[in-house]
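Supplementary notes (optional reading)

For those who missed the lab, this is the record we used. Protein: Response regulator. Length: 231 residues.
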Amino acid sequence: MPQRVLVVEDEEDIAFPLVRTLEREGYDVDWVDSGQKALDDVSSRHADVVILDLGLPDMDGLEVCRKARDTGYEGAIMIVTARAGELDRVVGLDYGADDYMAKPFGLAELQARVRALLRRTNNQSSSADSGNDGGLRIDVAARRVFSGDDEVPLTGKEFEVLNVLVANKDKVVSRTRLMADVWDENWYGSTKTLDVTIGRLRQKLESVGVQEKVVAVRGVGFRLEGSPSDG
């Protein structure tokens, strides 16, 4: 069964290319042009990803995002907007969004980000099932991580790195892929940023007794090694 994407955008000249592009990728795509229609949709049907414009005619997209999370929507939400400021990005993530793209954007970048969101959220159910044995548990929708009943306080990038590693548990994830999925495919900064993030992530997981270990594979990348009870 194809994964379903809901496009929430009131401008037809933006919505139609998005819908066509995503349908060519094999997704089941629906389009609505208001915030209330979006809320009605996610409350009655499952959507794996919601692509949400902020400038809707009936309500602000941030309010749509917040209400969707409050009513239990657990899929991925990607905000697209002409508001490119850092403050808007931070507020969007605080309201429960998983990603944020500023207009104008390329369709190839949109496709890559949708794929990355689906990789992250597809891990949610299997991760939640291991939450009662003292193991690692990720609540993707709330962007929170737990070791048993204890929450592990992570930054946004630490959370995203861990989420990719958990989705590929016991497999090596290359440095290149981590940089592309967590930062940006066009990131030109030092990859030492990844090493610093991994170092902090290790310390935080170890400090609360998480059994899973982030292991460096020299010259390749990193692997999350799980405890036997998670197998």
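If you only remember one thing from this example: The CA atoms of residues 35 and 64 lie 6 Å apart.
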